[in-house]
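hi support,

uploading two proteins for the ticket. first:
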Amino acid sequence: MTLTIYSFDVFDTLLTRWISNPMQIFRIYAENAVQQGLLDISPNPLYQARVNADRRARLFTNQIEATFSQIYRELANELELSDDLANKLQQLELTIETKYLVPIHQADEMLLQARRSHPHVVFISDMYLPSEFIIARLKQHNFWQEGDRLYVSSEIGKSKGKGDLFTHVLQDLRIKPAQLIHTGNSQRSDVDRPRSLGIKAVHFNDANPNRYEAILQKYDRETQGVSSLWAGISRYARLHITAQNSKQRVLRDIATSVAAPILTTYVIWILQRAKAQKLARLYFLARDGEILLQIAKELAPQIYPEVELRYLYVSRQALRMPGLTVINKAFWEWMFDDTNFFSIDSLLKRMCLNQQDAQPIFEAIGYPLATWQQNLEASERQALRRKLESHQQLQELVLNVAEQKRKILQAYLQQEKLLDGAAFGLIDVGWRGSLQISLENIFALLGTRMPVGFYFAIDKPTGGLKHLGQVQAFFFDLNQSLGMRKEIDYRYVSAMEVFCAGCEGTTLEYMLQADGSVLPKLKHQQNQPALDWGLEFFQKSVLIFVQTLVRRSPDQSALMRSPKLLRESLDQLFLSFNDDITPDEAAAFKDCPFFDDPNELYHFYWAMPLQLKDVYKYAIAQRDGLNVHRNAWYEASLQVSSPLVKVVVPLAIAQRKLLKRLKKILIKTNKSMIS
């Protein structure tokens, strides 16, 4: 019986690094060498000398890889190092490699399966690192057994890329090509080349950077290596999270490679700013703050251990009415905030009015009870608003309700220690800081301290309102004309709402208990539509990224560097996710719920398929957009739409552009005729 022997590539097949760009190891090595006083130069010249030494050493070997000792002979020659110092630098690089090398989760199972065929396996690597070092790392992670063999290109003078290293292995083992099965991550060196020699090959590319990690990797210089570390941690996290199906694989990859780097960087910025301003407490506002608080609990001990982290049950619905002291333009804009579905019944819920008190008022102005659940068209909403804006009895009723709710809210704020005078911050995603304004109205009435508001991004408040406390933003601040955008980017708005979705229902109001305590009243105890979609798995994947960073990463200095240096890389990461969505990714978000109404009376889905009737109406200018609802993700919606819709959409867009051009021509012609 002919025995089958298995061979494995080593790097990014069995072992990988905490950073996705291997060249970053040289930067870390150079920084450490200077910090330890081994050389009296800045890190960058040593980094460049190390890179150059590798290139020049290969000139004299005529090989793809030079040996480690040959590289350091070149480095010693360039920097005129003593033998002793060159040896210390060699050892330092190996120490850093050891620190940054980690096992790949699937490696144990692959090796176990291989050893069932033959007790000994073969390791083949195109690498400059010495074989004794590689064997030591394989032993360290229990991959090596006595009797195994390692073939390193730099020491043998042959390579996988050329194919002659595989030929050498076959000859040395005295086996035929059909008796060897090779596994590796490189399509060319580990799959195409051995197959051309008659060797069976398995492509294991799970540890190769995915498209998001590759984006982060490109920005390692601009981010002082932090984005490369983020990419490496993303890779490690997704490799160690088991997905049960294709949808979970997508959610895992988006959580670890897109959401986690963005949210983690945002929370690091919050904690750094809170420390700089010596805030005693940080309040994470429901529900966007749910996952942000969990991230902060992992990071705070490393960045600002003295700060107290708390969760505050709030919502626009729960705060707007208690903070109301005057009926003004801002009040009416909130009451008639545009949603896909708007009825008198939903308006009353915003006003916190019961049916019994409201019925006489609304019936008197022409709205019988039987019509209260009907969705009002835009013109009908405007007509209703005009009637209510001049209705004194309704406004008095609303202000009385607001006063009653304000007393209970005050008790809740007192309970949560917001009124004790200590400096504190409020954390939300964005986008206009309306929750902060509502709380500030209460604080102003009570004469207590104003907060510092932290936001991912912030736009100017509507209705002429202004913040009484401080407002700071990470990504862009349109109040200060600072950051990555000059106008609010609604792609980020919907994506961040999904990334920060909460597992509980929204907060409706507060209930005073017999013992004087206050409990929030939730719409639902669980956000079931989001849980059904996979929110818990998504959050778990994000947190594994954070926990890996805090508990396992060898480089904690990333937590102290300026997070805003990463904004450009994070933006490119997000734009790739939003604009270049794959069919599998779009399908995974097809049933992701998106709540449009502040009282969660209904919800849509983030990636709802485009409807043929809507495409037609758009083409003839009867609709402003193609999406089923205003918060839908167009690129993903198009991906999950029917083949017919995908064909018709480009035609509809072209038709709409033609209509716009014709309209401009007609307007210009009419002006010419009049003049």
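and the second one:
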Amino acid sequence: MTTSRILQYFRYFGGNVCFFNIFAFALDAVDFQKKLLILSFLFSFLSESDAQQYTPQQVDQLIAKTFKIADRNEALKISNKTYQISADIDYYQGKAKSLKADISSYLGLGEQEKALKSADKLYEIAKKEGDDYHCTQAYIAKAIAYAYLGFFEKAIKTNEKAEELCKKIKINDDLYSSLGQIYNGKAEILNLQYTDPQKTLRYDLQSIEYFKKIKDKTKRNNWLSAQYSSLGVIYIDLEDYKPAIYYSRKAYELGKLENDSINQAFGLFGLGNAYLEMKQNDSSIHYYKQALPIFEKANDIYRLQYIYDDLGLIYEQMGDDKIYSYYTKKSRELNEIIRKKEKLETDKVSQNILEEEKKNWYQNLYIFIGSIIFLAVVFFFFTVKYFKSYKEEKEQKENIEDDLIEKEEELNHLELKVNDAFAELLELAKSNDSSFLSRFKEVYPFFYNKLITNYPELTTGQLQFCALLKLNFTTKEIAHYNNISVRSVETRKNRLRKQLDISSEIDLNKWMMDF
């Protein structure tokens, strides 16, 4: 590489004239290898200078913008950049906030596995800094990601860890926002399990009370806007449409006040959903179509599928076959994307969970074996030193072997307990236990595997509903044990019939039992 070519690159990357002339003289005086070393130094210097152009305040402002950008892929580009800048200028808060922004974008895009990885990274750097707030935020994010993938037990335990860790945060906006998110997480986990909406409502209302205590107006409005949207959905489930419209409208107004297009979209979505349930199709179409371009820009495939599905239903009722076909086709296309994404995400996270549990199991085993070995060595040392008796040494080894046998017996006993869980299946269903579906898979593996193989588009909630039908629960029983209305159960049955292409003349319970 000639000196002139190197200097051309230097000019391209922004070298100033004075510095350029000094290096031009230096480069002419050295051999090729030294030129490369100097060039490497130049690029390193220029990269560092670019990062130094940003102050922590400017980094914070860039990160704050990502939460209001509808295009989540664009938001990710910004948060990735701010993370690198923060690392270059050694700004820890910038790195932590950038990871939070990453997590928010990944959750919105339905990329739960990446959200979990970013949350683990956030927890790792926050723990090193002794930052309880961001450690708590990492747990909150992981709980939501696990819930979206249907790992409800894992989600509940992770949310409990967040609540426990939250006690270490000082009384300030960080504490109130964390507590609000934790109770919102509890509500979301229950909602995804089709639990009694009244229980969900209780947690949502507690969440709002914490968010109202946030002193920073912008943060308070953003959190309340998101939470009001959730509250509107719960009131729709309760078939109480007046507060549903009220809170959805408040969510939209606060989102508009803060120029937050995503929160505006959620408010509009709630209004469209409420008017749909009230049979006011014109109003429902109006609000859904306002929300639609925002969710399309955000690439929120889950919300888009809901809207396409509902708009298809509305136009079908109106007899407009052309528009009905358009939205139905869009819904099917998204459903295929969601099905593949959920399967991929679930498989990846399942493998990660298994590897984590396996790692913990081996760690405990190593500790146990290490403890046994340590005790054996210590005992052998004292035996040789004080007794020097072969008999006592032999007895000690026999005692250690007895301990190992006892541990094996304990493990066998635990295995028997797991097998005994088979008999608990019906009781788990009746008590709406969060572990019901995982137990069902063990009891009816053939049915479950055949169902997801033939109908891979079924969601976790729909699989749990199919499990109840397989157990021959009646409509009233399902409504009773899940604390929902009979009408809601019938609606789910009708949608399931359409999705599985089952004729209305066929008894759905019998179909499931014979499947």
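thanks. also noticed: Residues 1-25, 42-49 have pLDDT under 50 and may be disordered.
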